[in-house]
Amino acid sequence: MRRAARASAPGKVIIVGEHFVVRGSLAIVAAIGRRLRVTVRSGGKGIVLESSMLGRHSAPLPGQGAAAKVSPVLEPYIAVLRSLAARGYSVVPHTILVESGIPPRAGLGSSAASMVAYALSYSAMHGDPLSAEDLYSVAMEGEKIAHGKPSGVDVTIAVRGGVLAYRRGENPVDIRPGLTGVTLLVADTGVERRTRDVVEHVLSIADALGEASTYIYRAADLIAREALHAIEKGDAERLGLIMNAAQGLLSSLGASSLEIETLVYRMRSAGALGAKLTGAGWGGCVIGLFKEGEVERGLESVVESSSQAFTASIAEEGARLEEF
Asked: Which of 130, 224, 243, 300 is the most exposed place for a label (fewest CB within 10 A)?
């Protein structure tokens, strides 16, 4: 066994399909150039997490010592560790160092990237890096603790990278983007929320609507298919219209908020071809599709209403091991 190993995974934006993917609709998701890195070092006592964003947390190793209350921040990592142990990896004391360029709790997949990078680095420390299939399965155990009923799309894109068409229970399909001359603007509302709470709220509204909600989900699925074709054909104008329609559907099920709508309309007023929330909603981030020559105006338009904003490129590479 090595003394340490390091791995990273990309963040993501959901172009269309968040929430609806939970009940079988299509989602289009893209990895972005911002990455999260995890370094695992053996030694010490128990399991220790060190993160500039999440602080320092520690706990006994699973199955060792008296039962102790574990920080909610550590619980997903422990779930991943248990899954690794079930696959034959030895459980040893170690420290997890997290370095992230992905804002946490913002809908950009930081949680999934962290679970993926942790699972890959821990398995690599033992000299046997997980395969992509096993990496997905192990990381999902952590996401279930973090989010309750994750669709799996965040973990999939963190493992694979690129742009994917994703439907729950089916193999993801790689999309070859034909878009040129456009870029994504990402603006953070600065409002933190628990993904699990938003997912449960949206599902409760869908259930309350009864049969009517089936038409909303059907429309979301059709919109996602149109988005796939627009991306492949390079039709940015059409993709923008589709993003706007998707925002309306998400709002109808209670996923939006005043902060989100403010950023959406500021981007549209600044020339965005389309703008919508990405991720769970109730806060987190908004994405806007801009022509490259107009994105600076978009950045200026969201300065006062966002905690941070940046342009995002598509990351072709998913999870990877890294040298020290």
From this structure: 300
Tens-place pLDDT, residues 252-281: 999 999 999 999 999 999 999 999 999 999
Burial of 252 (0-12, 13-18, 19+ CB in 10 A): middle
- Classified by CATH at the fold level, domain 4-174 comes out as Ribosomal Protein S5; domain 2 (3.30.230)
- Give the CATH number of domain 182-312: 3.30.70.890
Q: 104 a known binding residue?
A: yes
From the candidates 134, 154, 174, 197, which is the catalytic residue?
154
Task: Decide if 134 is catalytic.
Answer: no
Coil, strand, or helix at residue 87? coil
Is 150 annotated to bind a ligand? Reply is no
Q: Find out whether 123 is annotated in a ligand binding site.
A: no
Cβ count within 10 A of residue 174: 10
Q: What single letter denotes the amino acid at residue 230?
A: A
Does 112 carry a binding-site annotation? yes
Residues 6+ apart with CB under 8 A from 38: 6, 7, 8, 96, 97, 98, 99, 114, 117, 118, 120, 121
Residue 51 assigned as binding residue: no
What are the pLDDT digits (tens) for 195-241? 889 999 999 999 999 999 999 999 999 999 999 999 999 999 999 99
pLDDT digit string (tens) for 36-92? 999 999 999 999 999 988 889 999 998 765 556 788 999 999 999 999 999 999 999
pTM score over 0.70: yes
Task: Say yes or no to pLDDT of 246 above 60.
Answer: yes
